[in-house]
Amino acid sequence: MSLRIIYYDTETTGISADKDNIIEIAAYDLDNDTSFVELVNPERPIPPGATAIHHITDEMVSSAPTFADIGKRFIEFCHGEVVLIAHNNDNFDIHFLRNEFERHDMKMPESWKFIDSLKWARRYRPDLPKHTLQYLREIYGIQINNAHRAMDDVIILHKVFSAMIKDLPIETVYNLISQKRKITSMPFGKHKGKPLDKVPKDYIEWLTDNGAMDKTENNELRECFEKLGFLKAKPDS
Where are the alpha helices (DSSP H) in 78-132? Predict the structure, then answer.
């Protein structure tokens, strides 16, 4: 059975999945040409800093359903064998989804597969200086829209990701992005392109102290430095 593609995005009260809440979910089912967009009542005030970014106010969500209701509807929308695609999914959206399901004593479907379009862009467009969704939009000549509202970002993501993968079957894309790369040189930073065993240890320590080695997209890089003896392995690794 082929995977059904669903592009999705979340807007939240902040950037910490443990402490913050989803206040909007939007999704687009490519095969069925159907959309899902819902405001979510987080049952807490939305910080002004967050509202300044996505323009969602307390008043807008005051009468909206809570995630207990929206989560059920989202599961129904994402029925069957699906792959959910979001930009920065691995470090952001998926964690908010999982935590919201857990907070409301709900189970996120185990059959759901995920693709992080940011991870794909970083891996297969290393020629670009940055990989934000809006920068990729510019690179691929896609018309500007109202960025930072969930459905607007979903529409841009669909167009950008389609341009990046071209005619590759989504099953192939999923398998490729799920494979671990064999990293031999520094993929970013001031030592980009330098063989890993030639990267200064104090630079690796600096990256570690600043949290770079804890990011999901750098797991494979961290493992390489651990094998070289430049970093101590994590206790649970």
Answer: 93-103, 117-124
pTM of the model: 0.81
Top CATH class, 4-178: alpha beta
Query: Of 131, 148, 158, 191, which is the active-site residue?
Result: 148
Residue whose C-alpha is closest to residue 128's, from 139, 119, 117, 118: 139
Q: Is 148 a catalytic residue?
A: yes
* pLDDT at residue 179, rounded to an integer: 87
CATH 3.30.420.10 domain position(s) in the chain:
4-178
The CA-based dihedral angle spanning residues 124, 129, 133, 136, taken in that order and rounded to the nearest 10 degrees: -70
pLDDT digits (tens, 9 = 90+) for 65-84: 999 999 999 999 999 999 99
Please give the structure tokens belonging to residue 215. Answer: 């990011």
